Amino acid sequence: MQSLPKLNLQSKVSAEEWQLRLDLAACYRLAEHHRWGDLIYTHLSARLPGTDHYLVNAFGLTFDEVTASNLVKVDLQGNILDDTPFKINPAGFTIHSAIHEVRPDAHCVIHLHTKETIAVATQQQGLLALSQYSLFSLGSLAYHQYEGLAVNQDERARLQADLGQHNHMLLVNHGGLTVGPTVGDAFMRFYDLQRACEIQLALQASGQPVIPIPQPIVDNISKQAKVVHSGSTGGQLAWPAMLRKAYRLDPGFAQ
After folding, report:
1. Which parts of the sequence belong to the Class II aldolase/adducin N-terminal domain (predicted)?
2. Rounded Cα gap, residues 101 and 93, in angstroms
3. What pLDDT digit, counting tens, does each position of 137-148 carry?
């Protein structure tokens, strides 16, 4: 069995970059814990503050192999900026680079192929207002139609236009995506989107009549969602607990 090269960048990068590496590596491990991974595919990326440089997973590693040190630093073109033995999946970074290019507030982008987000994204009505979880996403939800594998550079502009200033996206036939000003915010947004899709599919599978949330409540949810899942009362409050959980699951991510 071939072992992975072991890297230790903690003493070679700034404290700010190391903390971002810890947060992003923990997020990969948490995604794996929630069974959101897709073998060696799909990506979570994070921007280094004050730069146009980004951290993303090395191509060929499963989410539970990602560590703070083996995350790869790239620019918007996917050029590797680290002295690292690892490569990235250029096609996989296409979606992330397109969003980072036009959303300076989106310091973290999470794009995953969970069966639940794919299923709901592929339903003609998309995400429905059937649970409290759905409201967090519906307050800022976009859709992007399927155009094949994300290797066509012309698709970037359409993806950017479809996302606009939204923080959640369902990619038809493809999966889910969230963005946030921090890793914690993007994670919490994906958690809510994933849960909303799970609940919708469970309700549909039950075959029983459902009680939709009244439209006036849906229309007013954006203000409420901003209170619950932003700043010190949302993502940033939940993230330290998630980080502690990642350490309990496997502290190896912090290497």
Report:
1. 22-201
2. 12
3. 998 999 998 887
Q: 41 by DSSP, 3-state: which?
A: strand
Helix axes 15-33, 183-206, angle to 10 degrees: 10
Q: How far apart are CA 236 and CA 218, in angstroms?
A: 24
* 159 φ, ψ (degrees, to nearest 5): -65, -45
Beta bridge partners of 250: none
Question: What is the rounded CA–CA span in Å between residue 223 and residue 73?
Answer: 35
Place of tokens 């069995």: 1
Q: Tally Cβ neighbours within 10 Å of residue 246.
A: 22
> Shortest CA distance to 202 belongs to which of 125, 141, 95, 128?
128
Q: Classify each residue of 67-97 as buried b or exposed e, where b means 16 or more C-beta atoms within 10 Å of its C-beta.
A: bbbbbbbbeeebeeebebebebbeebbbbbb
Sign of the alpha-carbon dihedral angle for 176, 26, 72, 164: positive
Decide if 96 contacts 56 (C-beta within 8 A): yes
Q: Which amino acid is at 207?
A: G
Distances (CA, A) of 41 to 62, 133, 252: 8, 26, 21
**Contact (Cβ atoms closer than 8 angstroms) between residue 77 and residue 83:** no
How far is the C-alpha of 222 from the C-alpha of 116, rounded, in Å?
Answer: 23
**Residue 150 pLDDT grade (very low, low, confident, very high; cuts 50, 70, 90):** low
Q: Looking at the predicted structure, is the pLDDT value of residue 247 above 90?
A: yes
H or E stretch including 178? strand 175-180
